[in-house]
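Quick one: structure for this chain?
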Amino acid sequence: MQSEEIRQRFLKFFEKRGHKIIPSASLVPENDPSALFISAGMQPLVPYLLGEKHPLGTRLVDVQKCVRTTDIDDVGDATHATFFEMLGNWSLGDYFKEDAIKWSHELLISKKEGFGLDPRRLYITVFAGDENAPADEESEKIWQSVGIPKNRIYRLGADKNWWQAGESGPCGPDSEMYYDVTKRGLGDLTREQFLAADDKREVVEIWNDVFMEYLKKDGKVVGKLPKKNVDTGAGLERLAAVLQNKDNIFYTDLFAPVMEILNEISPRGDLRAKRIAADHIRSAVFILADGVTPSNTDRGYVLRRLIRRAVRFGRGLGLSDEFYKEIISVIADKYGKNHSHILQNVRMIEKEFLAEADKFSKTLDRGMKEFEKGTDPFVLFTSYGFPIELTLELAREKDVKIDLEKFNAEMKEHQELSRAGAEQKFKGGLADTSDKVTQYHTATHLLHQALRDVLGEHVGQKGSNITAERLRFDFTHHKKMTPEEISAVEKIVNEKIKAALPVNKVILPRAEAEKTGARHFFGEKYGDQVSVYYIGETLPSAYSKEFCGGPHVANTSELKGVFKITKEEAVAAGIRRIKAVLA
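Got it. Here's what it folds into:
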């Protein structure tokens, strides 16, 4: 079964059962400045999982594009990818465990409407229970009622069967579906045998039903959500591998056109290098298509790293500009039906990709010169971006000894520091609904409007990041702010906090929302219905109004502390950055 049929069968199955099909959100989170990319299918829907009403109702289904680079070093194996599509069906306070499980089972095994998988190869896991919630006996019984033997249902701990995003937000137990992908068939397995089969990839997780009924704040379950929700996820790439009888996602039709080009260029080239190049180019195409460009910070840095890794591994395969163009064109053709913006922007994508590839090629050339001087491999890697693999290869050719143990020790320390920074960067997002993060979301709206009041109408948001400790806001402005301008902005924001202005939300058709004058920064990526948050008594008279997915306080008086700008600096030509706190 080809990937396009998998998509359509999934969407039609749930549409027939009362679900409205919604389009994939952009990879760039809408008005969620504390997350770099959409990395899970549920991320764009968090406000609705927390209780807000969705314009299309309580049953939804989608295919959401995602980017996740936390496992980037594993790309090249059988299942890991930095870009993936997540099939998901959603219940927002509607059906719960029974319907979700029965439909999951039906879709997986039905030959008429579903995927026609062999039910004798299915294995199920459920939550074993802990101090946060009891064992999920209900799901276990429902699975038995649809025909899964009790000895193929395994209770596992929170590390396997409890879902949450960050330390605050909706969470709950989940039930995962695994499929036996061995040729011989594994048959009945004990719990220990099943876990061993999972480690050996003899069984593959193909679907996950999350039952969101709890709310966490600051790492602790503090109660139950107002309504029980269902969030399911099935990775298209893994599902395609199973349905196409492939033991590797890179052998599916999703990657086949790109892998064919790479195999023609380099028939005997390193297989892992081909997979990494294929994955990273595909990810870069989708990120570029959503308006991100390479840079040294945030999303731009992730994109830059993907392109540079693709070039690094592509060099050994003999990839040139023309081959990169060909691969980008093939990806655009493959995905154009479902993601038309890629076809519409293919020339821009080529231009940006090749420009970054050219920059990195020059970096590699500089690294070669430094290598000739005898520069330490760790410095070559961290300062010049020169891959250790190339350093070792050149060292062998010239009979130069490299202290790899020292390099690995230095890299381990470097990675631990980087990982600590990354964990700080990626925690939060809309899933982080702690009181302070929510306050900073609203403070960001006030700051944006105050900057326009003081500096002029040219000010526009260019990016931001929010944590529980501070907010960061990037905006267009041609020169350094004066102390007087900074003071004026602080004064306005604090006045609005003191004025105890109500914070309201209204859902409007996109065209009508645009007419209100509400600020919107990714307008082309919004759906037909949009949420507008406005600060003031009425929408026409509001002090601030923006397209936004939340979360926000109900009144500016809830912003605790005095708003203080702690830093104002340049980040690029014509772009300034403010860091501020509520102290």
